[in-house]
């Protein structure tokens, strides 16, 4: 499982002209799931996202988690994180989990974040989405469960 985490000042997801999720201060999470991922991967990354210290303290050091700082999550399913472009010019997505595997794990990830006390907004699984964000910092971190 891969998560691209972007600290943001504001972000939204729009599908067919309708905003499906929006946050002010918080994290945008682009979430990719592969065939081998399990609920253990989901739990590991949800806890990592909740506890990662990416917010500044009084001295300007990244020393506070989103739980301490406050903020919300905008979670977007992103199978293209498992795109492989080593050969040719068209990526292969064979490493991305099929929707019947990926969607329940993405939903479980979002629920795990909620159970850790975070407010979670989402895009729509499998939809063509327009994602807008103001990256704060910029701070962008790649997290992987394996």
TrEMBL record:
<protein>
    <recommendedName>
        <fullName>D-aminoacyl-tRNA deacylase</fullName>
        <ecNumber>3.1.1.96</ecNumber>
        <ecNumber>3.1.1.-</ecNumber>
    </recommendedName>
</protein>
<dbReference type="Pfam" id="PF02580">
    <property type="entry name" value="Tyr_Deacylase"/>
</dbReference>
<comment type="function">
    <text>An aminoacyl-tRNA editing enzyme that deacylates mischarged D-aminoacyl-tRNAs. Also deacylates mischarged glycyl-tRNA(Ala), protecting cells against glycine mischarging by AlaRS. Acts via tRNA-based rather than protein-based catalysis; rejects L-amino acids rather than detecting D-amino acids in the active site. By recycling D-aminoacyl-tRNA to D-amino acids and free tRNA molecules, this enzyme counteracts the toxicity associated with the formation of D-aminoacyl-tRNA entities in vivo and helps enforce protein L-homochirality.</text>
</comment>
<dbReference type="GO" id="GO:0106026">
    <property type="term" value="F:Gly-tRNA(Ala) deacylase activity"/>
</dbReference>
<keyword id="KW-0963">Cytoplasm</keyword>
<dbReference type="GO" id="GO:0000049">
    <property type="term" value="F:tRNA binding"/>
</dbReference>
<dbReference type="GO" id="GO:0019478">
    <property type="term" value="P:D-amino acid catabolic process"/>
</dbReference>
<dbReference type="InterPro" id="IPR023509">
    <property type="entry name" value="DTD-like_sf"/>
</dbReference>
<comment type="subunit">
    <text>Homodimer.</text>
</comment>
<dbReference type="GO" id="GO:0051500">
    <property type="term" value="F:D-tyrosyl-tRNA(Tyr) deacylase activity"/>
</dbReference>
<dbReference type="InterPro" id="IPR003732">
    <property type="entry name" value="Daa-tRNA_deacyls_DTD"/>
</dbReference>
<dbReference type="GO" id="GO:0005737">
    <property type="term" value="C:cytoplasm"/>
</dbReference>
<keyword id="KW-0694">RNA-binding</keyword>
<comment type="similarity">
    <text>Belongs to the DTD family.</text>
</comment>
<dbReference type="GO" id="GO:0043908">
    <property type="term" value="F:Ser(Gly)-tRNA(Ala) hydrolase activity"/>
</dbReference>
<keyword id="KW-0378">Hydrolase</keyword>
<feature type="short sequence motif" description="Gly-cisPro motif, important for rejection of L-amino acids">
    <location>
        <begin position="137"/>
        <end position="138"/>
    </location>
</feature>
<keyword id="KW-0820">tRNA-binding</keyword>
């Amino acid at each position: 499982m891969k998560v691209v985490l972007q600290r943001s000042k504001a972000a939204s997801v729009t599908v067919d002209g309708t905003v499906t999720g929006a946050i002010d201060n918080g994290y945008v999470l682009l979430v990719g799931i592969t065939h081998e991922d399990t609920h253990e991967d989901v739990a590991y990354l949800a806890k990592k996202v909740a506890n990662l210290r990416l917010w500044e303290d009084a001295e300007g050091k990244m020393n506070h988690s989103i739980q301490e700082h406050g903020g919300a999550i905008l979670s977007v399913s992103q199978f293209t994180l498992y795109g492989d472009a080593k050969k040719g010019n068209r990526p292969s997505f064979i490493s991305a989990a099929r929707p019947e595997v990926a969607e329940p794990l993405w939903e479980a990830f979002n629920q795990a974040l909620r159970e850790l006390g975070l407010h979670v907004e989402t895009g729509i699984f499998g939809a063509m989405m327009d994602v807008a964000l103001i990256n704060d910092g910029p701070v962008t971190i790649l997290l992987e469960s394996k």
